[in-house]
């Protein structure tokens, strides 16, 4: 019977991964194994899916994920100088997390606020028209 | 002074109780065939970048047999410089919803998805709410306005992969796979989501379709010229005084007017060097060549494309190699990694440009051209095929300044 | 009827097939890399692109169906130039920094990349190699991965997933970080890999190969204090000549024995002898389970890839496995006890080397339950390479015979090398033991052939035996699911590799599409040529029981020849 039912009604793996990521802040191994069971996929396969998407993590991240756009429109508006400042302030390269697990830095592509660049995202919150000082202020507010 | 024409842009449309759903009501009244005919006659072309005529897509999908059919609204907007779909999702989500309903009704689908990129958390929040209220109000999941049409709609969040904007990658992603493109044919129309016939449409295309069917804006289909009908949302960014979202009628405004009137000209007394007219997968238009009306065919004639509507002004103060590296990094990082020409080609291009920047050594244009050709001719999806459009056009136009020699795409 | 034109030739086709297949019919070779017969189409390498009239962009021949009226150019200048450029890109990721890399590579003598380079006439290399700096994955006792040589063609992924039904590999990450790897980069030894080695057979490069023990074996042969005996598995003799002759299906048992003697082994024995012994033990177990309401169906236990598979994926069925060790391990146990005694050699001095068509045997030899039975396992490929490096002209060797005590075997043992063989060997013996009468027709056709799953009902003296034979782990899984769904069997032969051991992951890598048929024919030919074709007729087996093991299933037989299994997590 279940096989006849449209796949539309099956939970989407992508959405499941989002929920797990929201719950734990990353996707723990035990959950990957559950998913592999549930979706009848090899666990390597599930890992392949997770690692494809930049917003999923298989290791714990910092409390604040800082995403800074360096795509063309922001780049034209000097996102690179913001990036340099944030990198040296946090002592991180892209994809790295501070030792106190507070910040994870991600240099990302376009965040869809290109008319108001440079753009920075802290977890789900967007900050537009930032510059070096504003970026550091935002980070300080997280402390 | 060039004017905007406002249809898609406008006041916030968030309150479902006060929204009249005039377009879908109209469609239900005139029936499927006439709905499709109207969209076909309107000359509407897809706004997701490929510009495929929406009416024809719907007509083909309506004719395909399938156990079930799907409509997918592509809201994975990720082309750098583009933010129009986000605007529509955040400010005019009811239009988007109505567009999805129209497409589904027209092609005979009773299930639909909207795939919103994961970074658009505000859009996701707003649209989830819209879906929920629509369900409560029996707009979704129930026979609509006493017709026999009923639609179920699910929202899927992307998770940070530009390539998922490609319709076949998007379908893989919804299916919970790596977002790699599929080999075409079969096209989604025949075998898409869960192997069923699937119509994928861009957010803006669907909103345009809603305008076409809206009895209050009958003139919408008359706007523009043959081959470029209706209005277009423009995302102005870069070195402009007044960047932002604008809506223009096709062919009634020149690119120069877009840059200097709407965009308020170049910031800080700099001179414009070129315009990237449709996002970084399109070839640049030099500052001295902007005086032509904005239309699909005008760009095609100039070897470029209006792409996603991201109009990016670039002044002379920027280092061209730096910009090429920026674009090249984008493609290198965002390839799905499936096909060798795109994955390895973009990696090598980035390496070559980096070497140029670091050592100031002469670049083998022949090599860039060979790699560029290889990617364009042999890559598996649009990402790869168009990945060198910007870079090669910069080299073609400014090669001498860059100490590049030779000819690209000889 | 469909008409099209390829390279100016008019072709007519009955049905829609890919451009690649159509070109093959017209005797046109299009280079391919990610394509493999029997696996799903990947369409990633794009080496097979061709020009289709009227289209600007090129089309992948492997993934494009030919259409009425299509005009195709497979080797136009546009296409040839592009392939060369593309190949430069591929080679740059392959990190060959100097020729030496190729000289020491496992695929030095049959590298697909080199073949393609020749086919497309590669003449220049303008790109510097990309160094990813990946380290070698040597976490496994059986299969080694050298990611630096991996070009991400995806064939191993599809082989493991589609044919073997396991899914050890995946493509991970995106963009320039895209790699083929195991779950969380764990390494093959730390995941549910069965060690079957099928992925090695699919790899076009030297990125996958067995864990080499060639050097250790050469060292031990030089150790005068050791008595080194060697055993050869049934499937080796029908494949060992391939790397020398480039043709499949030749039988070279005699040359094999001569070569091993020349290499300096102190005694050259046959795993076939232990295969006959296995039949005695496993056959006894089967009869015992049937007569005494034991756990049925009985599963064969001679394929270590299958053993690890069931330990990972169906641990609830471990009791169904025959407790009999595999022939390789039985041989080792007997060599170090019985043979030691008969030959008057201190068992500590005896070193057992196996020549196997199988990579999983390397892991099996290391299992703690039977550690010490076998000391080194070489694949057929490794042996071929040793023979070459010793300057032995294999094809022209004179033939010689195995040493007697553990070297004589029946035709039933020979067919262990193919799918269905263990079943047929067991049926031959079981029928005669149960009925006490001589078999009329000795061949059990129903369990022969290359189908993935074969089922048969066999009459044995009034008893109806429901038998099944599965080869390839994908098929093994299907049969396990049939059992779970309630289908009933009495006796099932499982072999991890498609075709059985003759298609093992340690066999020479062949470009002959019909290699399995040819090897199988050769195996049946050996069986047919033998006078003694039933295990229980082997006089040396009788002697072994009389002088040492008492009878099948005895206490001492159990101690030496049987083992236990354990559930493993995924
Ligand atoms: C790499 C790539 C990215 C794309 N990104 C988007 C996107 O973000 N949004 C979109 O609507 N279409 C995108 N497209 C185009 C889609 O494949 C598809 O053509 C479009 O969604 C169809 O809708 P339309 O006909 O309404 O334009 C992309 C295509 C490619 C090759
Ligand atoms: S062209 Fe690029 S993005 Fe498209 S399939 Fe190939 S690797 Fe993936
Ligand atoms: S796989 Fe690579 S290193 Fe090995 S022989 Fe072929 S080209 Fe040389
Ligand atoms: S050895 Fe077998 S199980 Fe292991 S990865 Fe290779 S094909 Fe898969
Ligand atoms: S290991 Fe071999 S078969 Fe697997 S992807 Fe790499 S090159 Fe291909
Ligand atoms: S380019 Fe930075 S937000 Fe779009
Ligand atoms: S062989 Fe056709 S794409 Fe690889």
From TrEMBL, chain A:
PROSITE patterns assigned: COMPLEX1_24K, VHS
Coiled coil: none
InterPro entries the record matches: NADP_DH_HndA-like (IPR028431), NuoE-like (IPR002023), NuoE_dom (IPR042128), NuoE_N (IPR041921), Thioredoxin-like_sf (IPR036249), VHS_dom (IPR002014)
Cofactor: [2Fe-2S] cluster
UniProt cross-references to SUPFAM superfamilies, sorted A to Z: Thioredoxin-like
Assigned keywords, A-Z: 2Fe-2S, Iron, Iron-sulfur, Metal-binding, Ubiquinone
Record domain VHS: where: 52-127
Note on cofactor: Binds 1 [2Fe-2S] cluster.
A Pfam family hit: 2Fe-2S_thioredx
GO MF term list: 2 iron, 2 sulfur cluster binding; metal ion binding; oxidoreductase activity; phosphatidylinositol binding; ubiquitin binding
Positions annotated to bind [2Fe-2S] cluster: 69, 74, 110, 114
CDD domains in alphabetical order: TRX_Fd_NuoE (cd03064)
Family indicated by similarity: Belongs to the complex I 24 kDa subunit family.
Xref: PANTHER family: BIFURCATING [FEFE] HYDROGENASE GAMMA SUBUNIT, NADH-QUINONE OXIDOREDUCTASE, E SUBUNIT
Stated name of the protein: NADH:ubiquinone oxidoreductase subunit E
Annotated source species: Halanaerobium saccharolyticum
Automatic annotation (TrEMBL), chain B:
UniProt xrefs under SUPFAM superfamilies: Nqo1 FMN-binding domain-like, Nqo1 middle domain-like, Nqo1C-terminal domain-like
Sorted UniProt keywords: 4Fe-4S, Iron, Iron-sulfur, Metal-binding, Ubiquinone
Recorded GO MF terms: 4 iron, 4 sulfur cluster binding; FMN binding; metal ion binding; NADH dehydrogenase (ubiquinone) activity
Xref: Pfam families: Complex1_51K (PF01512), NADH_4Fe-4S (PF10589), SLBB_2 (PF22461)
PROSITE patterns from the UniProt entry: COMPLEX1_51K_1, COMPLEX1_51K_2
Domain NADH-ubiquinone oxidoreductase 51kDa subunit iron-sulphur binding: 321-367
Keyword hit for Iron-sulfur: yes
Matching InterPro entries: NADH-UbQ_OxRdtase_51kDa_CS (IPR001949), Nuo51_FMN-bd (IPR011538), Nuo51_FMN-bd_sf (IPR037225), Nuop51_4Fe4S-bd (IPR019575), Nuop51_4Fe4S-bd_sf (IPR037207), SLBB_dom (IPR054765)
UniProt superkingdom: Bacteria
Family, per entry: Belongs to the complex I 51 kDa subunit family.
Protein name as catalogued: NADH:ubiquinone oxidoreductase subunit F (NADH-binding)
Source taxonomy: Bacteria, Bacillati, Bacillota, Clostridia, Halanaerobiales
UniProtKB/TrEMBL annotation, chain C:
GO molecular function: 4 iron, 4 sulfur cluster binding; ferredoxin hydrogenase activity; iron ion binding; NADH dehydrogenase (ubiquinone) activity
Residue ranges of domain 2Fe-2S ferredoxin-type in the record: 1-78
InterPro entries per the UniProt record, alphabetical: 2Fe-2S_ferredoxin-like_sf, 2Fe-2S_ferredoxin-type, 4Fe4S_Fe-S-bd, 4Fe4S_Fe_S_CS, Cytosolic_Fe-S_CAF, Fe_hydrogenase, Fe_hydrogenase_lsu_C, Fe_hydrogenase_ssu
UniProt record, GO biological process: ATP synthesis coupled electron transport
Cofactor: [4Fe-4S] cluster
Annotated GO CC locations: membrane
SMART domains per UniProt: Fe_hyd_SSU, NADH-G_4Fe-4S_3
Residue ranges annotated for the 4Fe-4S ferredoxin-type domain, each copy included: 141-171, 185-214
Gene3D superfamilies: 3.10.20.740, 3.30.70.20, 3.40.50.1780, Fe-only Hydrogenase (Larger Subunit), Chain L, domain 3 (3.40.950.10), Iron hydrogenase, small subunit (4.10.260.20)
Name of protein: NAD(P)-dependent iron-only hydrogenase catalytic subunit
